[in-house]
Amino acid sequence: MFRNSRTLFLIFGLLSLSSFRLGDPYMDGHPSIYNSTLDQLFHPERHGAPFLEQREASFGIDSTLRYRVLMLDYSAYGSAYNEKVRRIIQHYLPKTIFTDFTEGSADDLTRALAGCDVVLIAYPSASESGTVKSYGRSLNQYVQSGGSVIFTGTHEYEILRQFGLIELDYGYFSKDRPLHAIHPEHPVFQGSISDVTLTNYAYPLDISDPGFVTLADVGGYPVIGYKSVGAGKIMYLGVEYYFDEMASSTILINAIAWSSREQVAEVLGVSSAFSSESLKPGSIKRSEEVLLAGSGLKPEQVDLKIYPNPYFSKATLDIELFKPTMLMVEMTDELGRNVVNILPRKTVGPGLCRFDLPNISPGIYFLQVHLGDKTYVRKVVKSSSN
After folding, report:
1. 173: which DSSP letter?
2. Separation between Cα atoms, residue 96 and residue 67, nearest integer Å
3. Which residues of the chain are modeled with pLDDT < 70?
4. Which of 8, 56, 305, 315 could pair covalently with 311 via S-S, beta carbons 3.0-4.6 A apart?
5. Per-domain boundaries in the chain
6. What is the DSSP letter of 270?
C-alpha cells in the first residue's frame, strides 16, 4: 500500500512541476502556474460559475447570422480548448455551422476550407513542424482568397512560427497584468472594456512582422491584433479560453463578426460593419471571379466562373465539366434559407453549363454548387446600383 501511495505522490508531483514555468518576464522571475486545470484546483476562487449562465451578450452582434467556422484542432491537450471555444460561439452565434479538422494532409485541409468563412485554431501546441508548415501554406492561400484565420493564445509560441503566417521572435505568458486596448474604438472591442485585467492568462508576442497591426498589448507587447494578407485577415487573440470570461469571449465573437464582414467590405471597397444593410457596393477592379473547385475533384475536372461579382441586375455562372456529374445549383441568404433553385439536381454531361443569377433584392448571398457528393459555397453580392 505504501508503494502505491508513493507512486501516486510521485505522479502528482510531476503534474504539479509541469504546471510551473520559471523566468516569466512578467512575473519578476517567480514561478507561475500556466496549466488552467491545476490553476483551478489550487485557486478555485479565480474560477467562478461560467459567465454564459450568468449574463447575456449585449454588444450588438446579429445572432441570426450564419457563419461557417472550421475548427482546426492542433493542440497537445486534446479537444478541450476547441470545445470551450465552440461553446462560446454557439451561445452567441447559434446559427454557426462548424467543421472539425483534426488530422490529414495539407490537401485534405485545403478541401475542408472550401466554403468556410473563418478558421479557428485554439491553443495550438506540440506538433510536428513539417505538417504545420504545410498547413500554413494551405491557410495562406485560403487567406489570400478572402478567408480569415484566428489563432488564440498559446504558451508554445514556436508553433505560431511554424505556421508561418505571422513573423515573431518570441512569446510569453502573463497573469494579472492589464490588457490595454491601443485602439479601443476598433470593432473587436465593441461592448467590451478597453482596459481590463483578465482572470485567465494572456499570451503576448514579440512580433517582428511589419504588416501586423497591434490592437491591444500587455506590458508593451502585442496580445491582440491582425494582419491583412490578400483579401483576407490573420488574427491573433492572445488570451485564454479554457475558462469562460466575458471580456475575452466578447473579443472572440467580435473578431469572428468583424473579420468575416471585413472581407466582404474590402471586396466592395467600403468600410466594414457588422450589419449587412450598411454594406453598399462601391467600385471594384475585377469583373470576373475564377473559382477552381478543390473538394475532391481535380482542377481539370471542373471550372467555375461567376461574373460580374458584385452584380447589379444579372450575373452569369459558368460551370465547365469534363465528365458526367450530378449537379444542383441554388442560392441561399445569410441565414441559410433557400432563395432560388437555379438548377434542380440532375446528371449533366461534360461541357459548358451556363446559368443566369436572378435579379433579386440587394444583399449578400451564398451560391451553392453541388457536384456529386461535394458542395462548393461562394459569396455573391447583389448590388442596389451599378
Report:
1. -
2. 5
3. 1-62, 127-129, 261-303, 334-335, 385-386
4. 315
5. 54-276, 289-382
6. S
Report in angstroms the alpha-carbon separations of 170 from 154, 166, 173, 203.
Answer: 12, 12, 11, 11
Report the CATH fold assignment for 54-276.
Rossmann fold (3.40.50)
Q: Which residue has the cell 478541401?
A: 111
Give the long-range contacts of residues 209-216, CB within 8 A, separation 24 or more.
209/166, 209/167, 209/168, 210/167, 212/166, 212/167, 212/236, 214/182, 215/181, 215/182, 215/183, 215/186, 215/188, 215/189, 216/179, 216/180, 216/181, 216/182, 216/183, 216/189
Per-residue pLDDT of 153-200, as tens digits, reads: 998 899 999 999 999 999 988 888 889 999 888 889 888 777 888 888
> Is-contact 337 296, C-beta < 8 A?
no
Residue 369 has phi, psi (to 5 degrees) of: -110, 115
Strand residue runs (E) in 38-110: 68-72, 97-101
Residue 1 burial (CB < 10 Å; 0-12/13-18/19+)?
Answer: exposed
Single out the residue of 124, 66, 127 nearest to residue 98, CA to CA: 66
CB 18 within 8 A of CB 35: yes
The DSSP H or E segment spanning 3 is: helix 2-17
pTM over 0.70: no
Please state which architecture CATH assigns to domain 289-382.
Answer: Sandwich (2.60)
Question: Which residue carries 456529386 as its cell?
Answer: 372
Per the structure block, which three cell numbers stand in for 325?
Answer: 456529374
Can you give the length of the chain in residues?
Answer: 386
Ramachandran bin of 351, using left for φ above 0, alpha for ψ from -120 to 50, beta for the remaining angles: left
251: left (phi over 0), alpha (psi -120 to 50) or beta: alpha
Question: Which cell numbers hold the place of 109?
Answer: 485541409
| β-bridge partners, 224 | 216, 237
Q: Which of 199, 229, 210 is nearest to 137 (CA)?
A: 229
**54-276 and 289-382 share one CATH topology?**
no
